[in-house]
Prior knowledge:
The complex is a heterodimer of chains A (309) and B (287).
Chain A: H1 3-33, H2 41-56, H3 71-93, H4 98-118, H5 120-123, H6 142-166, H7 168-178, H8 180-185, H9 190-216, H10 226-240, H11 245-266, H12 274-295
Chain B: H1 2-33, H2 40-58, H3 62-88, H4 93-115, E1 130-132, E2 135-137, H5 139-161, H6 163-173, H7 175-180, H8 185-210, H9 217-231, H10 237-253, H11 263-277
Antiparallel strand pairs in B: 1-2
Helix pairs in contact in B: 1-5, 1-6, 1-8, 1-9, 1-10, 2-3, 2-4, 2-8, 2-9, 3-4, 3-8, 5-6, 5-8, 6-8, 9-10, 9-11, 10-11
Amino acid sequence: MDPSGLLGFGVFFLTTVSIYAVLTLGLNIQWGLTGQINIGIAGFFAIGAYVSALVTAAGNPAHVGGFELPAIAGAVLATAAAALAAALIGAITVNLRTDYLAIATIGIAEIIRFILQNESWLTNGVRGIADIPRPISEGSASNLIFLAIALVSVAVVYWLAERARVSPWGRVLRAIRDNEPATEAAGKNVAGFRLQAFVFGSAVMGFAGALYAHFIGFVSPEAFDPLFATFLVWAMLIVGGSGNNLGAVLGAFVVWIIWSGSELLTGLLPAEYATQASAARVLLVGVLIQVVLLARPEGLLPEPKSGGK
Amino acid sequence: MLGDIIQLAFYGIVTGSILALGAIGVSLIFSILRFAHFAHGDLMTVGAYAALVPVKMIGLSPIVAMPFAVLVAAAVAVVAELLLYRPLRGRSSIILLISSFGVALILRSLVQIIWGTSNQVYASGIRMPIVVFDIRIKPDHLWIIGGTFAIIIALHLFLTRTRFGKAMRAMSDDLNLARLSGIPTNRVVIITWIIAAALAATAGVFLAMDTRLQPVLGWNALLPIFAAAILGGIGRPYGAIAGGFVIGLAMEMSTMVIDPGYKSAVAFALLVITLIVRPQGILKGAA
Lengths: 309, 287
């Protein structure tokens, strides 16, 4: 492989890891901090990607949109749309055990998948939406500039999540996770805090969707296979360390190396085993999750003992 | 028009039977182990594919192959219990949910590795439905409905008449009291898994008879099954039966007015309405 190809691969790799890191940070706010389960990550990710794509792409009679807004406006609207969806689903389940939230989030993800596939006037169905602009496109340096944007995004989301974690607000969330009745007895509005954390985390996932759409420049339902997006992000958080924001970023990096590395390995197999090979990769990550849950439940980086500071 | 309605109601009972079998298992597991079992759909898939082995190898009908499907699914559930769920049980029940989500993915990828990803059927060729008063009924449908009712009666007798059935109900009412009164809780848990897996395998074979075998067979049924379990009051097996038929009928009847692609959305809508109006379900569940 020539050096420029290697550089290109490195840029692509790091940008993808950055997008996953943003998703994992979003899940950490919900699961790591508050103990809420979201099995519909792919749904919020897709909402973000499609909203940003529809408002920024050039007009096309095959789907709605054509507003040609700047990418930054797309990202803001994407974040808001995911937050709105999360607020609706969160408000319904906020007073119930988190099992109900987990079930309801599958519902959201499934319905979004159906809408993306079936309502082609809206989303152009399986053919997807193309020509989604980059925020700054400068020819050959375009990928490098986008990597910088993605890295800055990770830094900003990390900073926000870390601020939230050590703040009095984050302390209440951890208290709810560890002992809900005591938190309630201390006079905290448990439902309100929980809803805020769920909306915050989902908004971050929506933002990650916008990053993805503008990075790839094309969105189609295939990219939001509920299982892969959701499943990989869970693996990243569990491996990295639930409750630890740095762990979330590290987990995204490590699991993505394992995931794409296993693709290199299975690529050596003859083509007739291609479907088996991709299933074997899922199996590998599934086993990895179980091993970490059993043998090292705190993940690579355990949750900091105190709130920091 | 009336004929269409009755036809769809009939399909609704078929779908409802399958959902009820799945939802009873989810509800039993929830009542004993207190977590939503996310691998239940994929356990159905394992059962459906396991039945394919004797069907293809020695040409059995899927109904006759059922015991083999039950055996495989029960073995898978017991292995998952011993390797994963039992060691994790000391920690939060939410960890069990996450672990079961991982198990779901592991089971599905195993199915893909062993049987491939393409759609398959137990028996190819068209089988003519019997037409009774304009209602088209396939023999498979009668097997599904009849089998489900027989299983429900057997389960009822098990829960009310046998020592282990009574122990299960005691554990679901009060775990600590059950343990103090000398109930062998670990053994009851294993029996719960075997029963839930047997019901899941049966539901999986029925679903594959009604549609076709594909690796996402069970996962796609998971949302309606959870909806049925919650509608019936989660942790209440009898409620789950009612929930299964309500959701099944609603899903099939809805195709008169909306795109069949949105059947799952109908189940979801009923789930959301239940959570808003009566989160404890029809029979008061463990909310």
